[in-house]
Prior knowledge:
Blueprint: H1 2-137
Keywords: Coiled coil
Amino acid sequence: MDDLIQFRTQVEEFYRSEENKSMNEIYEKVSEKEVEVKYYQDQLAESNNFIQELHSKSNEEIDNLKNQLIDMKNQIEVYKDENQAMKEEVERKDQEIQELKEEKEGRARIHQDEIDKLSVKHKQQLYLYKKKLQNRAS
């Protein structure tokens, strides 16, 4: 009977040691899988960080481009205003030139009239002078 008990104890120990071996193998496999999972989690975290950086950079670039467009629009408005002011200045100068031309033409007509009057007067005086000379000569 002792042999039977001893055999039974040996069988139990064998099963326990086999169970322990199986459990150890399972723990080893689980540990290996945990290492793999950790590696993939790290890879995923790196990928997510990279994607987030790209997204952040692209948002910054979009914001920069938007700001550049706003600046360009504002500059265009400034140019439009300056252009309009220059057009108005040109129109005003053209008007001044036209007025000066008309004034000059008016003065020229007055001067021409005076010249014509003086010319007629001098011609009359010359005629009278010639007549006097002819009368003296005769």
